[in-house]
Specification:
- The protein is α+β, with helices and mostly antiparallel strands and 143 residues long.
- 41% of the residues lie in helices and 17% in strands.
- It has 4 helices and 3 strands.
- Strands 1-2-3 form a 3-stranded antiparallel beta sheet.
- A hairpin with a 4-residue loop joins strand 1 and strand 2.
- Helix 2 crosses helix 4.
- The chain starts with 7 loop residues before the first helix and ends with a helix.
């Protein structure tokens, strides 16, 4: 596939599906939905005493971009706090809109979304799993 939006890295990340599934007895669950295309991501989080992610799983019924983004989180989110996720979401949004550099490790795999920069209608797809994680953290705050 020669389309930069669907680079091999994106397809590989989506196929790897790190963290796909559901957690048994999660502490919190969050969902994000994109009504424009029907993509839906549900995220289960287990949190440690400090409120950091100790385990994450996701159920992603979405396009390959959303699947790849969720896979990156499934592979690298352990140890992140809500503030870390908010910062990450802002960094990725800036990468997509202002063409800033991708986030640093362990989230450097988001560099694979460089082809999405020119497709503003697909930015939401990349950010949807992060929205689901933040939704789960909101549930944590409410509880």
């Amino acid at each position: 596939m020669s389309d930069p939006l669907y680079r091999k890295e994106i397809l590989r990340l989506a196929a790897d599906a790190h963290g796909a599934g559901r957690l048994d007895g999660p502490h919190v669950t969050g969902t994000a939905f994109n009504p424009a295309c029907g993509d839906r991501v549900t995220v289960d989080l287990a949190l440690d005493e400090a409120g950091r992610v100790s385990a994450m799983a996701h159920e992603t019924k979405a396009c390959v971009l959303t699947q790849a983004s969720a896979s990156i989180l499934g592979n690298a989110l352990k140890g992140a706090s809500r503030d870390d996720v908010e910062r990450l979401a802002n960094e990725i949004a800036q990468m997509l809109v202002a063409k800033t550099p991708p986030p640093a490790a362990p989230f450097s795999a988001f560099a694979a979304f460089a082809g999405a920069v020119e497709h503003r209608n697909r930015h939401r797809c990349v950010l949807l799993p992060l929205d689901a994680v933040l939704s789960a953290f909101e549930e944590s705050d409410a509880g």
